[in-house]
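Lab notes, practical 5.
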Amino acid sequence: MVVHSKLHSKLQIVMFPWLAFGHIIPFLNLSNELAKKGHKISFLLPKNAQIRLQNLNLYPNLITFHTLTIPRVNGLPEGAETTADVPGYLESLLATAMDELYDQIKSFLRNLKPHFVFFDFAHWIPDVALEIGGIKTLCYKIVCPAASAISLIRSPLEMTTFMASTAADLVKPPPGYPSTTVVLHEREAKLLSFLFREYGKGVTIYERLKKGMTLCDAIAMKTCREIDGTFGDYIATQFKKSVLYTGPVLPEPKKEPLEEHGLSNWLEKFEPGSVVFCGFGSQLFLEKKQFQELVLGLELTGLPFLLAVKPPEGTNSAEEALPEGFKKRVQEKGLILDCWVPQLKILSHKSVGCFVSHCGYGSMWESLALSDCQLVLLPSTSEQTLNARLMEQELKVGVEVEKDENGWFSKESLCKTVKCVMDKDSQVGCFVKENHRKLKEVLSSPGFMNNYIDNFIQNLYGLLVE
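Output from the prediction step:
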């Protein structure tokens, strides 16, 4: 029996994520796990991102950052390298700049000849690999599999067809979709319109994602079978290729004091498990009216709360958007920050008992695997909404805030949901708490994450000999 020589060598992998920290960091977390096992990673990213993320590279002897020179694109601000440098409406120009890296990436890959390239938004990577020859490509999905399944497994819709479709048609899951509950409601159909917006020159997000998943050698997913197995199997069948699971790939929480913004001192003033923490990630900008409903809803609960949120649309700071008299009323009991906060450290603090989450995929995993908080779900995009449905309807670990026909929540609906999970006598609260406890036990059990990485690496070797 001939044993393939590649199975004895350490893997050489190139990582090329979309130019957004919400994509780069999960790729880097996976790189750390692979480097821990001795594999070599070449990580392609712009200079400023390298500087910011240097401290997250835990194996600099095995993970090498390679600088991408972002091409000049008309209309893109000077020096813009990631989505953090541009407002949302200019992201399409950044996608154009990424696509213009084609020749830069091609010559890098031709010189290096790695075993694998991992990518997500650069749908042309499989073409480059095919042209060079001998390189396998992996489309690494860092969003929930349900979002890929419900959005991408349908006949290609042109924008005109999309606009003419009824809401019921748009949200109807594709044939064979494995869930009746992890779905969008009719009033949420408009959330899918982003798929058919141009994102880069002459390409929509839909085409970008669909092509990447269709042409790659295998699809990898930042999840585990226990939570997303039915969706992963469905995607494997529809795209006729292997779906590999990396596990949730979460960084180990550091046992460091919570020094930022005097948060530790502030949280220490309150009873264990009494504080409501509301965190909405770095990409969500609420309308002023919704922001006001949010803060008034938190006030209505009567519980101490910490809110970390971007300044609302059209304002320079969260403070200037507060309702009249609000600041004076909540004084010691409410803290509102419109800057970055160490979410994981906050969730791990003994005083924090409830997490009002926008249900981004990273936040979802942190709340499930690394915290004991009660979960209140307040999504705004289609992917976040599917994450919320997964957590409420299938895993039964949290409760979603009710919204009206326009997708707006009220201060009353937010308050009601927080109280529902936080009241000691609430049956619903006890039910979701127990389910969360059981799931966390599985996800944080010794060897759970490590086994996923070991199996993932074995699967990569398997792909090399196909």
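Observations recorded by the TA: The mean pLDDT is 91. The longest strand covers residues 40-46.
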